[in-house]
Structures are given as C-alpha cells and as structure tokens.
Design goal:
Layout: H1 2-9, E1 14-24, E2 30-40, E3 43-47, H2 49-61, E4 75-79, H3 82-96, H4 108-115, H5 128-151, H6 156-164, H7 169-184, H8 201-224, H9 228-244, H10 248-264, H11 267-275, E5 278-279, E6 289-290, H12 291-307, H13 315-323, H14 325-339, H15 352-365, H16 387-390, H17 394-411
Parallel strand pairs: 3-4
Antiparallel strand pairs: 1-2, 5-6
C-alpha cells in the first residue's frame, strides 16, 4: 500500500519554496544550508473502510520520514458512501430478511415471493442493485399502506380522492405525511413505546421496515442530488446503527468523518470532502453517484481491457490501458448510443407499477399497520421497532466516543 500511495502522491498539487537553515558543524559552529520545502494542496483520498484504514496505516508507517512526499502529507483519507450503503443493506437484511419466512405475510422474503423477485438473495453483496431496488419498492409500498391507514382509506384510489377533495390538497398531503412520520417512523434514542405496535410484532416489523427503508431512500436520494449536508445527516444515524450492530470499523469511520468535517479539517478541505463525494458522468440533475462506485465502474472497464490484451499483458501495457480509460469510456458510450446498446434477448421488462400494487395489496389485506394484540411472525417473534438505536447504552457510547476522539486527535496531521 505504501508503494501505491508513493506513486499517487506524485500527482498532489504543491508549491516549492527555498528556505535557509543553520546546520551544526564540528567544533560548535554552524553553516547555512538551502533546502526545498513543499507546501501541499491536500486532496481527499477515499475508499471503503479497509482502504481508508490502510491509508492511515501507511501514513503512520512513514510518519518519521525525511520529507512531506515520503510522509504522504498530501492525502487525507475519507470514507466513501457506496460501500457504506452496502454495509447498511447488510444490517437491514440481517434484521428483516429470512428465507424461512415465506409463510409470514408482510416480511421481506414473503413479499419477494409474491412478486417473484428471484434475483433478490440472502447475500446482498452478490447482487446489491437487485436487493436495493427491491427494498426501495417495499419501502414505497409501506409508505402508501401507512398513509392509507392514517387517512382511513380502503385503497389508493380512495386515498387519492380524500386528498384531492380537500380545499388545499398540498397542505392535506403534508399534514398526512407529518402524522405518518410521527406515528410510524421510529429512529430515535428515546421514544414512547405505546406508539410502537402496542405489542403487535407484525406492526413492529412493518414499522421497522418502514423506518430503515426510509433512511436508505434518504441516503440514496441525497447521493443522487449531490447533497452533502443530507449525506452527513445520514452518517449520524449510521454511527449509531453500526455501533448497535457491532460493525465497529464502519462505526469508527462514521465518527472520523463527522470529526473531520466539524472539528479537524480546515474549512476549505472540509467543504471539499463534503461536496467532492459525488460524480456525475451522465450530466443533468439527479444523476450523481458515489465516487467509490464510479471507481468500481472504471475498475470493471480496466479489467475488461486488460483481459483482451491476451499475450500482450505487460505492466507497461496495463499502465497505458489505465491512462486511456477516460477516452475509452467516451468511445464506448458514443458507440452504444449510435448502435442502440447491446441487443436484447427475449427477456421481458418487469412492471414496477404492477409489482408495487401487488405489494400494497398484500400489506393492506394483512393489515400490517393495524395493531392486534398477540400477533407475531413465526420467524420474527420478538422483533421490536427502533430496537437498534434505543437499545444503545448512552453512557457507554459517550465513553467510547470520548476515547476514540482522543485517539483521532492524536493521529491527525491536518487540522484547523
């Protein structure tokens, strides 16, 4: 890792100045020596949790080197969002997905069977996109079902008529959403358990699905819109959720990120870290993706290019292929637009609206938001909404954060 960072550090912008210092010589005398001093324009170097940890480790290894280049002073490591979203999806799946829950109406696996989403599997890392799209659809269905429950509507048409028939439909819809959030969304430290299912584990499962799903959608939408403040707000929740689910490394990185923005980094670099987390390679609003996901796309393109080198695969050829990725990507994009992309087979396109209606119907028929004493899922008999955050010991959390903050401040080399 040190060798890789040494190579990358050559591209860090810098200004070089000449300084004269006095160096001790034999006999107690001194002599003037001119030295070159580099002042770096620091840049964020991001990646997943393991990459960021290795960057910090490499900087600690080189801490006593002679100059700033060897100490890798031009970098400050930053955790990125796409791999974090994958970790959060693993948390959701571990809490709410069970392949034995096919008979429990309203659970994720049962809804997967209802709409026949065969590409949704237990290991989200093997097909994150499919699992993510499925969770987005299920969350949307839960929002609509909860709105129907709050408004006293029997179906979506009835819900629409109840809103549009009012004198101010916008204000009515806003009030409905506010009531829904107060009654159904439960992500907080302290809450009134009397509003959390009233002992009905089916309702508590549905509220937990709604709450975690909305946090996922908030995180996705903030990335798409390139809204750094909303991303940072989501990271505050992730700090608590990762702490509660024993994802210790990502919990530490969440604390690192918040410390970097609010306390450690100079304002210029803090804003660079906050707003430089996104890439928009397509153009237009709402088309941003995380920088680590963009890097995954480039890595896949590079791997395909290197594979086609065949017997010509040499280190020099791989470096040339890497430097040509930008031009190569543009050529492929233009070619796909001119030719219509890959020729499709006989596969049919699934109707998202049809699947959404099926899930809403399933949830409504099973009255997942209507409390019934003693009701529970067979595979989730003891689930409680908001258990992840509400169960955190606040005193232990405070002590842990105090200890980690002290460690972070001792190791940081770039500060306000």
């Amino acid at each position: 890792m040190v060798d890789i960072l040494d190579e990358l550090h050559k591209y860090v912008p810098r200004t070089t100045t000449m300084q004269t210092i006095d160096v001790c010589t034999g006999g107690g005398g001194t002599t003037a020596v001119d030295i070159h001093v580099n002042t770096f324009s620091h840049i964020p170097l991001g990646g997943d949790q393991l990459t960021v940890a290795r960057i910090r480790g490499s900087q600690r290894v080189e801490f006593n080197a002679e100059n700033g280049d060897e100490r890798l002073e031009g970098f400050f490591p930053v955790i990125e969002d796409w791999h974090t979203k994958m970790c959060f999806m693993e948390v959701i799946w571990k809490r709410l997905y069970n392949s034995c829950s096919g008979m429990d109406a309203g659970t994720l696996f049962q809804l997967r069977e209802v709409i026949n989403r065969r590409n949704v599997i237990s290991d989200v890392t093997k097909d994150l996109t499919a699992c993510e799209e499925f969770m987005e659809l299920v969350t949307t269905a839960h929002v609509l079902t909860a709105a129907m429950h709050v408004a006293g509507a029997s179906n979506l048409t009835d819900l629409s008529s109840k809103i549009l028939s009012k004198e101010n439909p916008t204000a009515t819809a806003t009030s409905l959403v506010q009531t829904l959030c107060r009654q159904m969304v439960t992500i907080e430290f302290i809450m009134d358990k009397s509003t959390c299912g009233s002992g009905d584990r089916v309702v508590e499962y549905a509220m937990e699905t709604l709450s975690l799903g909305l946090l996922l959608l908030e995180f996705k939408d903030s990335i798409r819109e390139g809204d750094g403040y909303r991303v940072l707000r989501c990271w505050k929740y992730f700090l608590l959720i990762f702490r509660a689910t024993q994802h210790k490394n990502y919990c530490i990185e969440a604390l690192n990120l918040l410390m970097q923005y609010y306390y450690i980094l100079p304002q210029q670099y803090a804003e660079q870290m906050l707003w430089g987390r996104f890439v928009n390679s397509e153009g237009g609003p709402g088309q941003n993706i995380s920088t680590d996901l963009h890097m995954e796309h480039l890595n896949r393109l590079l791997k395909g290019t290197v594979t086609h080198l065949g017997a010509n695969k040499t280190p020099q050829a791989i470096v040339r292929a890497g430097k040509a990725l930008g031009v190569l990507k543009n050529i492929i994009t233009v070619f796909d637009k001119l030719t219509g992309g890959w020729a499709t087979s006989n596969h049919t396109t699934r109707s998202e609206a049809e699947d959404l209606m099926k899930v809403v119907t399933e949830l409504s028929q099973n009255r997942v938001f209507s409390p019934q004493s003693g009701r529970k899922h067979r595979t989730f008999p003891s689930i409680e909404c908001n258990k992840l955050i509400a169960s955190i010991n606040k005193k232990k959390l405070h002590l842990w954060m105090t200890k980690k903050v002290s460690q972070i401040l001792k190791l940081c080399t770039l500060s306000r």
